[in-house]
Amino acid sequence: MELTKLTVTFDNLANVRSVLGVHDRHLTVLNTLFNTTISTNGEAIYVESQDKALIERIEKTLDVLLAMANHHVPLGEREILYVANMTPHIDKDQLLEHFTQRVEITRTLTGKPIYAKTLAQKTYLKAIEKYPLVFSVGPAGTGKTYLAVVHAVSLLKQGRIKKIILTRPAVEAGENLGFLPGDLKEKIDPYLRPLYDALYEVLGRKQVEDMIERNIIEIAPLAYMRGRTLDDAYVILDEAQNTTIGQMKLFLTRLGFHSKMVVTGDLTQIDLPPRVESGLIHATRILKGIEDIKVIRFERIDVIRHPLIQTILERYDAKSS
Q1: What is the pLDDT along the chain (321 residues), one digit of tens a residue?
Q2: Fewer Cβ within 10 Å of end Cβ, the chain: N or C?
Q3: CA 140-202-167 angle, 5° bins
Q4: How far is CA 119 from each of CA 99, 104, 293, 301, rounded to the nearest angstrom?
Q5: Can you give the pTM of this predicted structure?
Q6: 3-state secondary structure of 130
Q7: How many CB atoms lie within 10 A of CB 29?
Q8: Which residues are CB-contacts of 197 (< 8 A; sequence separation ≥ 6)?
């Protein structure tokens, strides 16, 4: 088969540096993702392949990246991967609009702005703003929990809510934590660590601990939701695929006035006993079509992680099918 050649030249040196990355790191990422060899002489990018479709995809990817550089959009490995994965599915203008018209959610403790990194994340945040109850379903690495936590902090800072409640089922211990050493907090914390990490990034450890002490932020296992009605609160149920139907019903019926609930889960990581139906699967099925409830589904393409993770996931899926 005849080789197809692609040559992409740059208008200015700044765009070269932005698209190539430090020490051509972005080219390394693209080579790994496309399983090919993309080279550069510092002024242009060259690709040769017998796969014409691959050449077309690389050309489209580079075209979008160049346009982003022209619009002074900062390019990191996440942006490179996302553009490369999305170009077969949406057009250049949609991607440019996403990156050039981003709305800041909040800032980290160090002042770094936090934005929706993908179109799916942007849709997710719009849904949380609009609906009192949102289910977010999809693979790990799509930002389901992290975005919900930082959005909750944003609303708390604005005075739109009075309390943040974060919970997840301690399924690994069967919600029976008595055999673990330490007090209640020490027993629960390992299961809730991802929630703490997101809070620490935005508020800092000292402020988080102060807010927990003043009961403004509450982090607790799902079993401790029983018998409560949660008004003026932002309530997040993480790892919801590991709830039973009864536990999910318990959680959803805690919804109070002027509150938001976000339920996140990954249906490929259910750790419930055999023949026990996931409360997340059941809830998204029976609540379908209710006007004030929205289900957002993330796909593998929304995972913004090292390109090898995509390959690993594909191999595992192929092995199990």
Answers
A1: 566 778 888 777 788 889 988 889 999 989 988 888 888 887 788 888 888 889 999 999 999 999 999 888 889 988 999 999 898 888 888 888 999 888 889 999 899 999 998 999 999 999 999 999 999 999 988 999 999 999 999 999 999 999 999 998 875 444 444 444 444 555 556 667 778 888 999 999 999 999 999 999 998 888 888 878 789 999 999 999 999 999 999 999 999 999 999 999 999 899 898 899 999 999 999 999 999 999 999 988 887 666 677 677 778 877 766
A2: C
A3: 50
A4: 9, 14, 20, 11
A5: 0.83
A6: helix
A7: 20
A8: none
Alpha-helical runs (H) found in 204-232: 205-213
Q: How many CB atoms lie within 10 A of CB 311?
A: 13
For the chain, what is the largest distance between any 2 Cα atoms, rounded to a whole number of angstroms? Answer: 70
CATH 3.40.50.300 fits 106-320, yes or no: yes
C-alpha to C-alpha distance for 171 and 174, rounded to whole angstroms: 5
Are the C-beta atoms of 96 and 67 separated by less than 8 Å? yes
Bin 219: left if φ > 0, else alpha if -120 < ψ < 50, else beta.
beta
H/E stretch holding 129 reads helix 119-130
Please check whether the domain covering 4-100 is classified as CATH 3.30.1370.
yes
